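The instructor's notes for this session suggest beginning with a concrete chain rather than abstract definitions. Hand out the sequence below and ask the class to guess, before any prediction is shown, which regions might be ordered.
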Amino acid sequence: MGRWPKLDKIEMVDGPLDKKDYDTRLAELQHRLLDLQTHHLRNGGRVIIGIDGWDAAGKGGLIERLVEGLEPKSTHVWRISAPTREEQGRHYLWRFWERLPAPGNWAIFDRTWYGRVLVERIEGFCDRAAWQRAYREINEFERQLADDGVHVVKLLMHVSAKEQKKRMIDRLEDPHKHYKVGLEDFHNIAKRRDYIEAYDDMLERTDTEHAPWHVIATDSKQHARLAGLQIVADQVGKGVELFEPGLDPRVVEAAFELWGWKPGNNKNGKNHGHRK
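After discussion, reveal the predicted structure:
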């Protein structure tokens, strides 16, 4: 669709947020997301949230804020790493088909099927013809999902080289964050120019009407988290009219039989006991 500038030209959002304002806005967005998830639970809707981006760009922090307010049994987080031996013997999209959400469920992918046109392209894990072909395959994959009623939300977390360096050094200096750092991270960071090119190609060739990309500037973690939750709420909430459903009359009858409870009778904390 050609609407994205070069990735390293994306403007970063600066300045901290007031903590009270941040906490208030975060809670509002999390409540909104829970309402939307409840709607999908009732109606069998399916949601896929795919998150890609640089190491130390804040993917984990965003996912943490996404899921902490959701209904856990219907929320699945898939952390995608190198394919297993079994997965290597199949089409690269197979392991994602295996993880698609059931009706009423949300699936969050921490790294996605775009690995074929990112790390696999850059590291030579597939030949040029394979990763060039993947743009069409991925667009068709997402088209199939959208046509089947799945909400597909794609987020690209972008951090500047300067901020990425700062965050990686913070991890090196904090023993509790050493597990977040590996040799592969430095290997990838050293190829930043190659990744910029790959990301730019990805945005240009897979930003579609049915599955658009949303690029989030993440040098400010607070701004990025609010932006990410807002994008998910806006995309998943398209065409959704939320309302408070009435109680099933049979549930009301059961509560009356067991406790003597009726709707509206408990406003002042009364009618907690069994019927006499």
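Then share the key points. The CA atoms of residues 11 and 126 lie 33 Å apart. Strands lie at 46-53, 75-79, 106-110, 150-158, 213-217.
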